[in-house]
Amino acid sequence: MAGKANKRGRPGWQTTQGNRAHNRAGGTAASRNPFAGLAASENDDVDSSEMNAHLTERFVGGNGSRAYSDLARVPIGASRNLGIQEYFMATQTPVPAGGLWLQKPEIPTSSEILSKPNANHINIIDVGEDIRPNKPEGSFESVDDYLGTHYNLLREDAIRPLREAVEQVRGAPFLDESEYLGGASIGVYDPVHITAIVFSNRGLAVRVAFSLSRVKKYVRWEQSKRLITGTLVALSPADDTFQTKCIIATVAARPISALSQNPPEIDLFFARSDDVEIDPMRKWIMVECRASFFESSRHTMTALQHMAREPFPLSEHLVQAKQDVDPPEYVLKNPFTDMSPLVPIEESKEFENVNILQSWPSSRSHGLDMSQSAALKSILTNRLAVIQGPPGTGKTYVSVIALKILLANMRSGDSPIIVTCQTNHALDQILRHIAEFEPHFARMGGRSKDTGIIKARTLFELRQSMSQQKIGGSRKHTAMVEIKKLANKMRMLLSPLEQDKPLLSHKTLVELGLITQGQADSLEMEAQYVMGISPDTPGIQMEQWMGRCLRDCDRPLQPDDFGMEFEEDDFEVEQLKELEAEAFAQDDDFETLKGPYILLSDNKIGKCGGNLRTDADIRDVLKTTPDLNNIPPVDRGDIYNYFLRHTKRIILQEFRGHAKAYEKLVKQRQIGQWEQDDRILREQRVVGLTTTGLSKYRAAIANLKPKIVLVEEAAETLEAPVTSACLPSLEHLILVGDHQQLRPRCQVREFENKPYHLNLSLFERMVNNGIQMECLSRQRRMIPEIRKLLVPIYGDMIRDHASVTDLNNRPLVEGMGGCNSFFFTHEWRESRDGNQSALNEKEADMIVGFFNYLVFNNVNPSKITVLTFYNGQRKLLNKKLMTHPNLRAHGALNIVTVDSYQGEENDIVILSLVRSNKRGNIGFLSVDNRVCVALSRAKRGFYLFGNAEMLACESIIWSEVIEIMYGKKSKGRSGPEGSAHKHRVGYLLPLICSRHKNKTWIEEPNDWEYVNGGCDQACRCTLPCGHMCLLRCHP
Asked: Residue ranges of the DNA2/NAM7 helicase-like C-terminal domain (predicted)?
């Protein structure tokens, strides 16, 4: 069944318009015989590649896959932009004196995955050169040294998790997932079977069905990090279990509807055409590492290799660590700048022509504070600008002001400014600001959650809104035509294995050289004489010959039915889905892989039990039996299975050759699409995309020849993705971030900090090397008592803006009587969940009670955020809050981890610290950058719950924070006899009744039962019905 919706248990895969159009044009794969007219070889001893060389000529016009081997051979129309094509052609250019890293493919080879790690574990496999650490300070030896260092570190960080997962499965092949060391991060799917081949515009995919028998749980795929699109997976035959054979693939698509089937299905892209498999009966085992994501690193690696073949602007700073920074070249040529966006229209005249290299407007003439003005000057006058923005100081605001001025000075024909961020969320935020004054912008890459102006300006939507006529000679059109032709040939090639089709045709067996023409004639004569069957009826002759020696070939993978429970939801899946959305953007349609497909099955197989045990025995019989009807029926089942095996082998060999050609045509289609997009992008003044998208779409961006790139969240991003922004045309790179907040994250923990420093951002490395940095210093988020908690981190760097001391802007927290921050300390012991993430049940109950108290006091739940360092605690808090009788009606609440909350803020933040143990182990709480983020999210109310005594003993930062909250000059313990305003640390949480001003102290979670948002007095108010309220005091 080719190109039609499967009526037998595959409702999850949609039939596309492409399927129907394909069927109208060329019919189904079985409508023609792909082997007709081929000369057959009767010599079974001839090498298979020689014997079937004629098949290649049949399917690709006599030149085999060579017809598609040269990317440049697709005709080039007059309307083409050659820059993108030349970008990809440059990857073939050798690099003189280049390191071995340039020869490594971004996708690992099978031998790399199967190699055993060395005893010291940190050294990777022997690839001819050592993994060199990043350099926090000082220069690199050369550009090659710099790029190679980051390439090797990034590549090993991306592939090691899968290698280690495979190594565990290889050592103990038959364990359940949970039995492996670190089982929470290993995904094992066994068995796996191929069900279909999909011919999509994104590539040739293999659809597989798999069992969850090793998982031993059903999966809610919407809330699971399993098999995220772009994930690297390894497959091995079930009878080998990674002992000798390993095939690498990436997840091409994971539509929830298909995953929700039983058994579930996904699409895979095999990493190499020579590894493609088509046998629907072969059992495989598939392994992934659920704690890593490959696709986000993949594009950055290819970008680094390309940079070795092109000019590298700013290398004097990035590679040689030069400290003195010159103005951008375009500023040196013309320093007179229109600064009027800084001031109101009535004052704009005197700011329209300012020589920014000689004079700078004073702070009195515009609305910026002194630190913002200095930062803006640095942005506009330094070709490499580094701007630090501590929490609440308005770094995005300064970026937007800078963009206003840069856009005001753009001339007709100038290339667009590139704006890039680590996350889609941050990108949407800054683009919303840009949309207020600049309508001509485009957003490339991952799907935006914004449903308004940002969505309308995505590249996908811009394509739909602009008429794009099909240009007959365009690269995209030419590639699409060739893709359809080749897909049709490949489908015809697979027709003997198509689901619900007749047995193998005797004519096909002749053309494959498996039987002689005389043997085929014997089958025809017998069928025509006995049954009157026409020789042109495919498969009937073989069915007549086989008789009762056939049996149905059932689907090899049956539905799972183990009475399993559901796997616990993973609420951190949003972070990986962000990467997934970026790796396969909306215009790539990553959720469902569209295109014609062919379902595969053996359909019928022969009954075994005859006297023929080996292929050699069967070949001897075939050589000595010109009339196949003379073969005993008991042996015919074994002979038919022999035909089936060798048909698959011959088809697979030819199919892999076509797969290689298909891959090249897909690349041509991609280039053609970007050539068409180039016209859209050149009409924009700003192009926004994430740092991952910048690497992925680097060819399209490079063709725009941008001069200016602005990187937001620069300190939270690995260095390599930011380095890839150094396009040959770049004259001005602006880095905005804060290296004292969250640092970049590695997939291999050993690469963080010493000695490898992979989690060091380019931003921080430039600061370490003495590059001039401007720091914003006036914060507009936190009330002063919360801001003071950051003194151990920033010292006296941050000052308060007047707005945060105004009670109209920052009113007191309801029900707390002016106690706007407090550290509730306890000694309740932590525990671990099934994923070994820390949680604290009693602390969670205490927080739920406090959350409910605030809601009782008319605090809008959307104005409260519960933060925690641990995903296990997040899940626990979410469960308890969402099932609380007074809170569940409010819908989704803000319960997030610290790592996902940088750049965010809320009125009231409740921080769950979790850790409390006898060992003094504080885990993530010892990371100062994470602590900085946790302490700086609240605007007017901040409440911490944790073991203050343990934290003070184990961390200098926490010791100073607790000392500040307790009050250095105050005496006595916080309690009924003390002042909660002086001592904001204690074992008793102080509440103030808004009606009676009575003070209540909460010590245990059960104490919340006696408080309804007020105090312990009886309410006695008159209800609307006229009766007296019998509850305790409530607001």
From this structure: 759-948
Quick one: tokens of 756? 């490898």
Distance CA 752, CA 746 (A): 6
- Kind and range of the H or E run holding 792: helix 791-794
Token code pair at residue 238: 């079930």
Q: In this prediction, what percent of the chain has a pLDDT beyond 70?
A: 84
- Residue pointed to by tokens 């004629």: 54
Local confidence band at 978 (pLDDT 50, 70, 90 cut-offs): very low
Domain 780-969+980-1033: assigned CATH number: 3.40.50.300
Cα 782 to Cα 224, 504, 802, 820, 925, distances in angstroms: 35, 75, 11, 11, 21
| Cross-strand pairs, 336 | 355
Q: Domain 325-470+686-739+748-778 belongs to what topology?
A: Rossmann fold (3.40.50)
Residue with structure tokens 């042109």?
536
In tens, the pLDDT along 733-745 reads 999 999 999 999 9
Return the structure tokens found at 821.
Answer: 């921050």
Neighbours of 282 (CB within 10 A): 16
How is residue 847 written in tokens? 């927080």
Surface-to-core class of residue 1006, CB atoms within 10 Å of its CB (0-12 exposed, 13-18 middle, 19+ buried): exposed
Distances (CA, A) of 816 to 844, 990, 1000: 20, 7, 10
Two tokens at 639?
């002979």
Alpha carbons within 13 A on the beta-carbon side of 110? 15
Residues 771, 143: Cα–Cα separation, whole Å: 19
Whether the pLDDT of residue 519 is over 60: the answer is yes
pLDDT of 533: 62
Tell me how far apart the alpha carbons of residues 813 and 909 are, in angstroms, rounded to a whole number. Answer: 11
Closest C-alpha among 660, 710, 669, 658 to residue 689: 710
pTM over 0.90: no
State the span(s) of the chain assigned CATH 3.40.50.300: 325-470+686-739+748-778, 780-969+980-1033
Radius of gyration, alpha carbons of the chain = 33
The mean per-residue pLDDT over the stretch 473-495 comes to 93
Residue 387, pLDDT above cutoff 70: yes
pLDDT at residue 787 tops 50:
yes
Report the topology of domain 172-292+554-600.
Elongation Factor Tu (Ef-tu); domain 3 (2.40.30)
- Which residues lie below 8 Å from residue 219, measured CB to CB, with a gap of 6+? 212, 226, 259, 264, 566, 567
Give percent above pLDDT 90 in the chain. 62
> How many angstroms separate the CA atoms of 946 and 934, rounded?
13
Please compute the mean of the pLDDT values over residues 891-902 and round it to a whole number. Answer: 89
Cross-strand partners of 599 = 196
Q: Where in the chain is the domain with CATH 2.40.30.230?
A: 172-292+554-600
What's the Cα-to-Cα distance from 130 to each of 100, 138, 725, rounded to whole Å? Answer: 10, 20, 26
In contact, 409 and 337? CB cutoff 8 Å: yes
Mean confidence (pLDDT) of the chain: 85
Confidence of residue 345 (pLDDT cuts 50, 70, 90): confident
CA distance 653 to 56: 10
User: Beta 732-737 vs 708-711: how paired, if at all?
Assistant: parallel
Angle among Cα 302, 303, 305 to the nearest 5 degrees reads 65
Those residues with Cβ within 8 angstroms of residue 612's Cβ, 6 or more apart along the chain or in another chain? 618, 621, 635, 638, 639
**397 residue type, one letter:** Y
Q: How confident is the model at residue 563 (pLDDT cuts 50, 70, 90)?
A: low
Do residues 441 and 431 make contact, with C-beta atoms less than 8 angstroms apart? yes
Residue 445 belongs to what H/E stretch? none
Max alpha carbon distance in the chain (Å)? 111
Q: How far apart are CA 499 and CA 1004, in angstroms?
A: 65
> Which pLDDT value is given to residue 880?
94
Other CB atoms within a 10 A radius of the CB of residue 773 amount to 16
**């923990």: which residue's tokens?**
749
